Amino acid sequence: MTKDVVAPPGGVMTDEVGTITGELTLEPKVGKDGTVTLRAQYKGAEEWYTVTGAQIEVPDPGNGAAVDRAAQDLLARFVP
Question: What percent of the chain has pLDDT over 70?
Fold first, then answer.
């Protein structure tokens, strides 16, 4: 599940390169431990960056509904 957005005022802070701005694609990724992390890329680019502070731990990674809710909650921070 990915979402194309325009970065909010001030941009989106990433762990790897700092603030990114402009047209972005956001994508939640689920780790093996159940942590859902939001990553971003410039729209159409190849490189992905981890959005700083945008992760939610899901107690049961096998619970698809909980993982989906966490992903939606992370995306909702940037998509109205």
Answer: 99
Residue listed under structure tokens 């700083």: 52
Which amino acid is located at 31 in the chain?
A: G
If 0-12 CB within 10 Å is exposed, 13-18 middle and 19+ buried, where does residue 58 land? buried
Task: Tell me the pLDDT of the chain averaged across its residues.
Answer: 92
Alpha carbons 21 and 9: distance in angstroms, whole number: 8
Residue 31: half-sphere exposure toward Cβ, Cα within 13 Å: 13
Query: φ and ψ at 16, to 5 degrees?
Result: -85, -40
Which has more confidence, 78 or 42? 42
Which pair of tokens denotes residue 76? 């909702």
DSSP 59: S
Residues 51, 13: contact at Cβ < 8 Å?
yes
